[in-house]
Design goal:
By secondary structure, the chain is mostly helical. The chain contains one helix and no strands.
Length: 32
Amino acid sequence: MNPDSATSQRTDLMLATQATVFNNECNIYAPE
């Protein structure tokens, strides 16, 4: 996949967003 392609950029953004949501849920359910 071309790292400069729009598809790659959307995938990176989607993964970053999902990771943020996942981390927030972990903080809510399992605070350190």
